Amino acid sequence: MIESQLTYVMDALGKMDARGAAVAExxxxxxxxxxxxxxxxxxxxxxxxxxxxSWYLDRxxxxxxxxxxxSWSFRQATRAFDPSEYVLEGSxxxxxxxxxxxxxxxxxxxxxxxxQP
Length: 117
Fold this sequence. Notes:
The structure is a single chain. By secondary structure, this protein is mainly alpha-helical. The chain has one domain. It is built from six helices and two strands; from the N terminus they run H-E-H-H-H-E-H-H. It has a two-stranded antiparallel sheet. The longest helix has 18 residues, at about 1-20. The two termini are about 30 Å apart.
């Protein structure tokens, strides 16, 4: 699986470089479609319906961690980065200047204690 992930990331970086992009952000509809497909594929499996209590499932019983198929199907799904499913933006020259840090706290980042149900 890690080899497939690395191949996908390297392809993404190559395509971003060719377009002069520094950032690739998944389109909401592409991300939603992928997540729905994963949820559909896990229905009726031991991961969701087998009575397993595991860290693979979130508090709502959704699989948010594990690929529901084989490593071969993962390889096929990640064989190439599809730029049409992402917003590619930013310039490489701006990225080379270093990260931009916010002066204030990030409201999206919560402490582990605050995330507990």
